[in-house]
Amino acid sequence: MSLLTDELKSWIGREAHYPAREELGRASIRYFALALGDENPLYVDEAYAKEAGYPSVIAPPTLVCETCQYAHRPPDEEGYIGHEWHLPVAGCRLIRAGNEYEFVRPVLPADRISVTWTLEDIVERSSSRGGTQLFVTSVARYFDAQGSLVATNRETLVYQPL
Amino acid sequence: MIRETKTAAGVSAGEKLPVLEKHFTAVDLVAYGAATWDWHRLHYDVEYARGRKLPGVLVDGQAFGALLARAALEWAGPRAFITKLSFRMKSMAFAGDTLRVEGSVSDVRGNVVVLAQRLLNKDRVTAEATTEVRLPV
Q1: Chain B residue closest in CA terms to A101
Q2: What CATH number has the domain spanning B8-23+61-134?
């Protein structure tokens, strides 16, 4: 039986938009850097960042691509609060296959970032464990308050039958 | 005084990046989850993780991207800018694991340097990445 049903195919091209709620903020940047043990002064030292040519401290590049900060919904039973398609796929576990980030410019604490997700493609491929699995590719595009693209995150998740 | 930034003229294919090591404790996983608004049980609830047939709480895959970016920028310097970072997962990592980022320059195209990076967990490859870094002219 094919995992990739006609119903599932009809999901390709769907979009979800999460508006900016506030500025990214210096605290978020410092928190992320501290959590990763990243001591780069560009993230916390205003004078250093300005000397390096930036208008203020900047965010570590992948911070804006973190999925959960935008959706603003209560946690589900697994604690997850981020964007999710809720695809009609039963009895599968989800595994990350990889991410492709593209960055246009450094993100600043004053930036108000909104995100638009597009379900780009769903492909069924055979699995090394026998049977098949689904590769779901989604693209998140991050925009600033002027509507200019600042980053793109193409994410592929694998739905693997249990 | 800010650190020096690499220039494309000063970099050539084959140059190795300094190795970056990061040990992930359960505390680090909670800190990363909190800093990224990721409250999924996989990252802190050991019983839940074991119930999913995992040996322990899981390091968020996007932390791999963050670590690869950190290694690239620590090498390149403060005026460098990552234009592209693409990673493919090869295996999972859990609390207690020490991840090692290795990398080398695979190409120089104008003022953009292409890096081949790998994330290793002892001898097992956790992720492989291609990273493009724009350097000042």
Answers
A1: B85
A2: 3.10.129.10
